[in-house]
Automatic annotation (TrEMBL):
Protein family: Belongs to the glycosyltransferase 8 family.
Protein name: UDP-D-xylose:beta-D-glucoside alpha-1,3-D-xylosyltransferase
High-level lineage: Eukaryota, Metazoa, Ecdysozoa, Arthropoda, Hexapoda
Reactions mediated catalytically: 3-O-(beta-D-glucosyl)-L-seryl-[EGF-like domain protein] + UDP-alpha-D-xylose = 3-O-[alpha-D-xylosyl-(1->3)-beta-D-glucosyl]-L-seryl-[EGF-like domain protein] + UDP + H(+)
EC number: 2.4.2.42
UniProt keyword Cytoplasm, yes or no: no
Segments crossing the lipid bilayer: 7-24
Topology term for the membrane: Single-pass type II membrane protein
SUPFAM superfamilies: Nucleotide-diphospho-sugar transferases
InterPro entries: Glyco_trans_8, Glycosyltransferase_8, Nucleotide-diphossugar_trans
Statement: the UniProt record of this protein carries the keyword Membrane: yes
Organism annotation: Nicrophorus vespilloides (Boreal carrion beetle)
Length: 369
C-alpha cells in the first residue's frame, strides 16, 4: 500500500517536472528569438502588452555605414513612447550586427522585455541574387526586397535611420486599418507646395501624384506586396530608368506607384515631417493641427546646425537613457533646448513638436496618480 502511493507520488512529480520544463522551454524559446539572425520563428508575446489589429507592431530599418548610433536613437524613441509590444527588425552590414545585438539586448533588460528584435545581414532574393548585387549598392536597394526577404512577416513600418517618433508607434501603425483592400503601402507626399516641389520641377521619370512621395516612413503590407509580386517590378523599372534616377529607391517606389496609384494610401505630412516643411514657411497643416508624429531629419539635418530644432530634438532623445524618468530626463531638457530655437524658421511654432509628447506624458502622469 505504502509502496503504491510512493509510486504515485513519483508519477505526479514527474508530470509536474515535465510540465514545468515545457513551460520553461517555451519562455526560453521566446527570448531566443531576439538573438536569432534571420530566422523565421514565430514570436510569443508577453501577456501584459496588447496587440493592434492582431498583427505585431513591427518597425524595420536598414542601417549601413556610420548610421549605427542614429538608428539606435530612432529605436529608442519608439520604445520610449509606445504602449504596445514592439518588434524591431534591423537589416545591417555584417560588421554592425554585433553592436546592434548588444545594445538591443541591454535595452530589453532595462524595459522588462517590452520588445523583441531580429538583427539580420543584408539579404537578397535567392533567385538572381547575383543580378541584384550587380545592379544595386547593397544597402540602398535592400528595402525594395523586404517583401521577399521577410517572407514570414505580414507587415512592417519601414523607417529611415534619420527619423524619430514624437508619438507612439501604434498611432502610425493604425493607418493600416484605414487602408482599403487594394492598398499595400502608406507614404506621405514629398512636398506640399508645387512652387518648391522637387519631382514636379526636376524629375525626368514618372512619379506618384502631383508632387511625388517621400519614402522615409513607409507602412508596408508585405503580404499584399508579395501578392502583387512587387520584387518582380523592381529590376525592369531600374533597368529602364537607371540613368534618370536621382534619389535611388525612393524614385523606384514613385515610379511603381505612378503606374499603380490605387495601391498606395497617402497619410498627411505630420507622419513624415521634414525641414522642407518649415524652412521657408510652415507648409504642413496637419502638423499645425495635430502635432508632428514622426520627425525626419533628412539630408543630415539632425547633425547640422542649419535648423536647430532638428538638432535639439535629436539631442534630447540621444541623451535620454532608457529606464530613466521620461518627464525629467527627456521632456524637460527637450523643452529647454527648443526654447533656444524660437527665433529660427522651424522654431516659430515649437508647440507642434511637443503636442503629442505632452499628451503621452500627461496620460502617464494620470495613470500614476
Ligand atoms: C495585410 O494584408 C493581408 C492580406 O490582405 C491582410 O490579411 C492583413 O491583415 C493585412 N495586414 C495589416 C496589418 O493590415
Ligand atoms: C482604394 O482607394 C483608392 C484610392 O482612393 C482607390 O483608387 C481604389 O479604387 C480603392 N480600392 C477599393 C477596392 O475600393
Amino acid at each position: 500500500m505504502r509502496l503504491f502511493s510512493y509510486t504515485r507520488l513519483c508519477i505526479i512529480l514527474t508530470v509536474l517536472i515535465t510540465i514545468f520544463y515545457l513551460y520553461w522551454s517555451v519562455f526560453n524559446f521566446e527570448s531566443n528569438e531576439s538573438v536569432q539572425i534571420g530566422t523565421g520563428r514565430p514570436v510569443l508575446l508577453p501577456t501584459k502588452k496588447k496587440l493592434v489589429n492582431s498583427h505585431i507592431v513591427t518597425v524595420a530599418v536598414v542601417a549601413c555605414g556610420d548610421r549605427l548610433h542614429e538608428t539606435l536613437t530612432m529605436i529608442k524613441s519608439a520604445i520610449m513612447l509606445s504602449q504596445v509590444h514592439l518588434r524591431f527588425i534591423v537589416v545591417t552590414e555584417d560588421n554592425l550586427i554585433e553592436n546592434f545585438q548588444e545594445k538591443l539586448s541591454e535595452w530589453q533588460e532595462f524595459t522588462n522585455n517590452a520588445f523583441t528584435f531580429r538583427v539580420m545581414p543584408l539579404t537578397f532574393p535567392k533567385d538572381n541574387a547575383q543580378e541584384w548585387r550587380k545592379l544595386f549598392k547593397p544597402c540602398a536597394a535592400q528595402r525594395l526586397f523586404l517583401p521577399s526577404v521577410l517572407d514570414d512577416i505580414d507587415s512592417i513600418l519601414y523607417m529611415d535611420t534619420d527619423t524619430l517618433f514624437l508619438t507612439p508607434v501604434e498611432d502610425v501603425w493604425e493607418h493600416f486599418n484605414n487602408m482599403n483592400s487594394s492598398q499595400m503601402a502608406a507614404l506621405a507626399p514629398e512636398h506640399e507646395d508645387p512652387n518648391v516641389g522637387w519631382y514636379n520641377r526636376f524629375a525626368r521619370h514618372p512619379y506618384y501624384g502631383p508632387l511625388g512621395v517621400n519614402s522615409g516612413v513607409m507602412l508596408m503590407n508585405l503580404t499584399r506586396m508579395r501578392e502583387f509580386q512587387w520584387v518582380n517590378y523592381v529590376i525592369p523599372i531600374y533597368k529602364r530608368y537607371k540613368l534618370k534616377i536621382t534619389w535611388g529607391d525612393q524614385d523606384i517606389i514613385n515610379i511603381i506607384f505612378h503606374f499603380h496609384p490605387d495601391k498606395l494610401y497617402i497619410y498627411p505630412c505630420r507622419y513624415n515631417f521634414r525641414p522642407d516643411h518649415c524652412m521657408y514657411m510652415s507648409v504642413c497643416k496637419s502638423a499645425e493641427r495635430a502635432g508632428v508624429a514622426v520627425i525626419h531629419g533628412s539630408r543630415g539635418f539632425f547633425h547640422l546646425e542649419k535648423q536647430p530644432v532638428f538638432t535639439a530634438i535629436y539631442r534630447a532623445f540621444e541623451e535620454f537613457q532608457l529606464g530613466g524618468d521620461i518627464y525629467q530626463d527627456f521632456y524637460e531638457p527637450l523643452e529647454n533646448y527648443l526654447d533656444l530655437t524660437t527665433e529660427t524658421s522651424c522654431g516659430h511654432i515649437i508647440g507642434i513638436y511637443l503636442k503629442n509628447l505632452r499628451r503621452y506624458i500627461d496620460i502617464k502622469e494620470d495613470n500614476a496618480r
